[in-house]
């Protein structure tokens, strides 16, 4: 863990990005805010709620961001399948949204795999596609799911850029 934290500090120091003072959720979310689209309170709240994230370094938090994205997309498909979306979308819209969130979950899962293999550009590419996929579901009752998935993708990309 200490070696990884030193590596993150070195990369951040030479990349012109804000340094990660320590491998903590708060400091990593703050450092990721070099991308102005990063919602720091959302970042902190999502990671704080995720078991094991408090002990993770930046690489671990990037992987966790992808896994949180999988969970967010799963929540959307679960709520759709179980009638928890109000007002309920028409059958065709619900099917399109289920397919979209399945694809979002797959993109995040593939990003997690790429991060596990330390293929950072490929992982960022997978997460970069999330917004377009989530927008395939234009049901207003699901807008929060789309927004949360997009925010998590931005966070994942921004944290990944800290470890390149």
From TrEMBL:
Family: Belongs to the PMEI family.
Domain of life: Eukaryota
Protein name: Pectinesterase inhibitor domain-containing protein
Keywords: Disulfide bond, Signal
Protein's UniProt keywords contain Acyltransferase: no
Organism: Eragrostis curvula (weeping love grass)
Gene3D superfamilies associated with the record: Invertase/pectin methylesterase inhibitor family protein
SUPFAM superfamilies from the UniProt entry: Plant invertase/pectin methylesterase inhibitor (SSF101148)
Transmembrane segments: none
Lineage, broadest ranks: Eukaryota, Viridiplantae, Streptophyta, Embryophyta, Tracheophyta
UniProt GO MF annotations: enzyme inhibitor activity
Secretion signal span: 1-23
Keyword S-adenosyl-L-methionine assigned: no
């Amino acid at each position: 863990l200490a070696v990884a934290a030193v590596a993150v500090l070195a990369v951040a120091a030479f990349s012109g990005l804000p340094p990660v003072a320590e491998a903590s959720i708060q400091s990593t979310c703050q450092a990721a805010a070099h991308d102005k689209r990063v919602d720091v309170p959302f970042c902190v709240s999502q990671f704080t709620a995720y078991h094991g994230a408090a002990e993770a370094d930046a690489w671990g938090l990037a992987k966790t961001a992808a896994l949180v994205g999988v969970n967010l997309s799963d929540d959307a498909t679960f709520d759709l399948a179980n009638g928890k979306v109000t007002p309920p979308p028409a059958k065709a819209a619900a099917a399109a949204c289920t397919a979209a969130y399945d694809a979002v979950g797959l993109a995040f899962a593939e990003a997690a795999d790429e991060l596990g293999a330390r293929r950072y550009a490929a992982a960022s590419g997978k997460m970069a596609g999330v917004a377009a996929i989530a927008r395939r579901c234009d049901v207003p009752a699901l807008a929060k799911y789309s927004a949360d998935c997009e925010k998590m993708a931005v966070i994942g990309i921004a944290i990944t850029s800290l470890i390149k």
